[in-house]
Amino acid sequence: MKLQLVVTGGFTGPAGKQRVELELEQLPPAEASKLRADLEQIPESAWGSSFLLPHPKPWDFRHVLSVKSGEREQVVTFHGGAGPAALTAIAKSLLER
Asked: For a 10 Å CB count at each end of the chain, is N or C smaller?
């Protein structure tokens, strides 16, 4: 399973884009297990959706999370703290790497 998180916007605009890509299988088992558990907390209806704040502030970055498993790819766009809590937890975990 491959995860990709792209973070843009906020006060840095496109110049401050961050990209994190990783394969769950290459992570330590405990870390991979935690990310899998967080992914399972995201409702199926959230995939393909956007959870953006109506009036984002300069420090509200736009996150695009892509999860690819086999031929299936799921994508969700969100601001931190918007949408299912698991999205913010996953983003935090990926950005801390």
From this structure: C
